[in-house]
Design goal:
The chain has 492 residues and is mainly beta. It has helices at 3-6, 175-180, 227-232, 440-443, 477-481, and strands at 60-62, 65-77, 86-91, 100-103, 107-114, 127-130, 151-156, 163-169, 184-190, 205-213, 238-241, 244-245, 248-252, 255-262, 269-273, 279-284, 287-295, 298-300, 305-311, 320-325, 334-342, 368-378, 381-386, 406-413, 419-423, 429-433, 436-437, 448-451, 455-462, 468-474, 485-490. The protein is 5% helix and 39% strand. The strands form 6 sheets. It has a 7-stranded mixed sheet with strand order 12-11-10-14-19-16-17. The longest helix is centred in the middle third of the chain and has 6 residues, at 175-180.
């Protein structure tokens, strides 16, 4: 049984009707009146605007250390040429944030400066490099907030497999809105040894940050927390790629590598090409697969990354095709368009073998830990819980793995919603879904895995390098904020 067979569901289903009524008022810091009824984003013409490519920041080099300064601040984005400019919160004021290109074994230090407006100071921002092997004080713990006008320097040793990471706000009870308004950016960790693979590179290696959003006629982003969004997570009614609604990309008759992040709060996408040709998957959250996988479609949940190659070689100049989202219809059913505009010689390859692979030895797991993902209603308060516990920094950790040991973690989901579970510090292997053994090499190394409704997932993780407290949580951001998150502590 494969993961994609479990994920044929809709997050918007009738389950939203199960949400307790009148438990939450609409909440927003966007500047517009939250009592105004939202009737849908304004009309627009799809594929009118070109795909923007987020800028790559240039570091200051100090020996074997690359240093950066990034400022969290308000900005303005042009999300579609038919829309007025959109106020956002961005890293360096742009949406999405600038790209960091790091090199394995070369340390990166990023000083983040908090210049967010005063309407956002009730929850001090913290920055998490998602998927990184880092010390706890540099992991972006929800309680390590940065005061207005102050800064914090995060140190990333980059001592792990090359992989696509991303950095984002991790403020408890405000992560959903902060990420939604723009506080997210890509961080690619490269290994010079991979250059010999001859995968598409340079302008043929394209980052795609896919997010759903809703807009008011003024161009403002519409976001609220209500009964329905508390249950399902927030869903926008249009899809953006790299901050633009349904853009187009001009391509040549050759292979392209797309580094894809689902940066949405809660929507799960099912990616496919409109002409039926396969997506060639070469990587996941934790880096390259052992060998390429030919996929008719690929599902990708919030915070998951997929690395795919699309071959335009056999398409005639003047043709076009769409990147589809087969989990939805209408304007949510298409993500962007590729226009074949030029014939070009292709020197890139997709080799039969990409990376060495070793299955974690399940027999060496020192323990199995069970985590049940559920709802809890106390009086008029609705919360998401792990093992009956809502998140609080005062809670004892739910797990205390010993440094250097391998553990088996089982996530049990009795609810009717999928939960993309993310573990900080580690990359893990998926070994079991719903009682059916899985081939870890087909999943690749992961830091986020979807636990399907009324099912369970078992993963293997080795806790290495660092001791201290970290968190694990659902990456449906409204579930995380309300409050499906817990701590674990790696002990000596």
């Amino acid at each position: 049984m494969r993961r994609r067979d479990f994920l044929k569901f809709s997050l918007w289903g009738a389950a939203a009707c199960l949400a307790p009524k009148n438990l939450l008022r609409a909440q927003t810091h966007g500047g517009h009146d939250p009592s105004v009824e939202f009737t849908g984003s304004p009309p627009y013409v799809p594929y009118r605007d070109p795909l923007p490519i987020p800028p790559v920041l240039k570091p200051k080099r100090r020996g074997r250390v690359d240093t950066y300064t990034i400022t969290m601040q308000p900005g303005v984005a042009q999300c579609h040429s038919y829309l007025p400019p959109t106020p956002i919160l961005g890293y360096n004021g742009i949406f999405p944030g600038p790209v960091i290109r790091a090199t394995k074994g070369r340390q990166v230090e990023i000083t983040h400066v908090n210049q967010l407006p005063t309407s956002h100071v009730s929850h001090l921002p913290t920055i998490h490099l998602h998927g990184a092997l880092v010390a706890p004080e540099h992991d972006g713990h929800p309680n390590d907030g940065i005061s207005t006008g102050d800064s914090r320097t995060y140190v990333y040793p980059n001592d792990q497999r090359a992989c696509p990471l991303w950095y984002h706000d991790h403020t408890h009870e405000a992560t959903g809105e902060r990420v939604y308004r723009g506080l997210a950016g890509l961080y690619f960790l490269d290994d010079p040894k991979d250059a010999g693979l001859r995968l598409p590179k340079g302008k043929y290696e394209v980052p795609l940050v896919i997010q759903d959003r809703s807009f008011l006629p003024t161009g403002e982003l519409f976001y609220n927390v209500s009964d329905a969004t508390l249950e399902t997570g927030f869903h926008g009614d249009v899809i953006l790629t790299n901050g633009v609604i349904q853009p187009y990309l001009d391509v040549s008759t050759r292979k392209y590598r797309f580094r894809i992040l689902n940066g949405s709060n809660s929507r799960v996408y099912k990616l496919a090409i409109s002409n039926g040709q396969p997506l060639i998957q070469i990587g996941t959250d934790g880096g390259l697969l052992h060998r390429p996988l030919m996929k008719d479609s690929i599902e990708i949940a919030p915070s998951e990354r997929v690395d795919v190659v699309v071959d335009f070689s056999d398409l005639p100049v003047g043709s076009s095709l769409l990147l589809l989202n087969k989990n939805d219809i209408g304007r949510l059913g298409a993500i962007m368009r590729f226009n074949v505009t030029k014939q070009e010689k292709d020197t890139a390859l997709v080799p039969a073998f990409l990376s060495t692979w070793e299955d974690l030895p399940e027999a060496s797991a020192v323990t199995t830990r069970n985590f049940t993902l559920n709802r809890q209603i106390t009086g008029d308060t609705f919360r998401w819980v792990i093992n009956g516990q809502t998140y609080s920094a005062a809670n004892p950790p739910l797990a205390t793995p010993k440094l250097g040991t391998l553990e088996r973690w089982r996530f049990i989901n009795p609810t009717n919603h999928p939960h993309p579970m993310h573990m900080h510090l580690v990359q893990f292997q998926v070994v079991n879904i719903g009682g059916e053994p899985q081939a870890p090499s087909e999943f690749g190394w992961k830091d986020t895995v979807v636990v399907p409704p009324a099912s369970e997932v078992t993963v293997l993780a080795r806790f290495e390098k660092y001791t201290g407290r970290y968190v694990f949580h659902c990456h449906n951001l409204e579930h995380e904020d309300f409050a499906m998150m817990a701590e674990f502590e790696v002990v000596p």
